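pinging the channel bc i need a second pair of eyes. not urgent but kinda urgent?? the chain im working w is below, pasted from the shared doc
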Amino acid sequence: MVEFLQDLWAFLRERKKLWLLPIVVILALLGAVVVATQQSSLATFIYTLF
């Protein structure tokens, strides 16, 4: 995982695409929320946010 993040950072820095970093972070956080609420009681609280 660390190697992937290092490669991603090197790619974004070399190609001058640092503006993509917030998008990648937000997508990763949304993915983590979906996985965390897949089969838990947190799902009811997440639904009220949206």
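so The radius of gyration is 15 Å. and The helical segments are 2-14, 21-36, 43-49. — does that match what u expected or am i reading it wrong
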